[in-house]
Amino acid sequence: MKRFLLSILLLAAASPLAAQLYHPGEQLFYRVSYKAKMFPNTEVGSVEVCTYEEQVNGEKLYRVEGIGRTLPTYRWFYNLEDIYRVWIDPETKRPVRFVSDLHEGEYTFESYYTYVWPDSTIHTRWRSRQRPFQEKQMTLTAESMDPISLFFTLRSAEAEDFTVGEPGTLQMVLQDTIKLIRYRYLGRENKKIRNMGRFQTLKFECQLGTTEGYSFTDGTIFTLWVSDDRNKIPLYIESPVKIGSIQAYISGYKGLKYPLDSRIK
User: Fold this and answer.
1) How many CB atoms within 10 Å of residue 208?
2) What is the DSSP string of 29-79?
3) Of 61, 65, 182, 218, which one is least surrounded by beta carbons within 10 A?
4) The CATH classification of domain 5-254, taken from the options 2.40.360, 1.10.8, 1.10.12, 2.60.220
């Protein structure tokens, strides 16, 4: 299985729409499956993305939390629990702080980002396997965000804002670098989701740049289907791996701000 299973879902949700929709009380539930030529399509993990409102040092912030886990049946083989949290300024819709705590088999990783928007800088601290922390300060642009914040970058624009086949680029902060995500809008498509029915969707092809940041020759490629309504929920993501592919698909939702009009009766 590919490392950072939850990241695949969060990165896939970083599609090209420009405004954020944070709605306290919203809960999105996903199932993650793996399939290969000699291996049937099997559910192996789950992901939850929830939005809360809370007071931090007397300031009202939104806290968005994403948690990915392998299902109990498969934890003996590959035990994964990834937790991502980001705090958002409700006025500017910009991230203030980001924390990740990843446990994947024997691998552990933690990171802390502090955004200083008045200075257009971000301070990052990270470490793996209990090694000493590494630190770096980088220059921010308006498009530079962590994976969770990028998850919400798509939530308000209309499909009419895009031209089929037109490319674009987003930026994602990862430890000591700012990676690029290249996307291409493929158009509208009706998509059947397991146990959820059929939806009207907006389809995107996305590619994450390599560690060099600007090279896409061998970066992660994934396809994303987003609900074609005002919620713009990521409904289905598919990413190839060395053997087979991983899919993440919506399995439930609560507290949406708008009706899920994209669902076909």
Assistant:
1) 22
2) EEEEEEEETTEEEEEEEEEEEEEEEEEETTEEEEEEEEEEEE-GGGTTT--
3) 218
4) 2.40.360
- Chain position carrying tokens 């498509």: 189
Q: How far is residue 10's CA from residue 176's CA, in Å, rounded to a whole number?
A: 19
Please state, in angstroms and rounded to a whole number, the distance separating the CA atoms of residues 74 and 158: 39
The pLDDT of residue 95 is 83
d(CA 262, CA 176): 39
What is the per-residue pLDDT across 7-27, written as a single tens digit (0 to 9) for each?
555 544 433 333 356 788 999
What are the boundaries of each domain within the chain? 5-254
Burial environment of residue 1 by CB neighbours within 10 A (0 to 12, 13 to 18, 19 or more): middle
pLDDT in tens, 204-254: 888 877 544 444 444 577 888 989 988 888 899 888 777 788 889 999 999
* Per-residue model confidence as pLDDT tens digits over 61-88: 998 888 889 999 988 888 889 888 888 8
Half-sphere exposure (Cβ direction) of 254: Cα atoms closer than 13 Å: 9
111, 115, 263 from 119: Cα distances, Å: 21, 9, 43
**∠184-147-116 over CA atoms, to 5°?**
115
Q: 124, 111 in Cβ contact below 8 A?
A: yes
Predicted confidence band of residue 155 (pLDDT cuts 50, 70, 90) = low
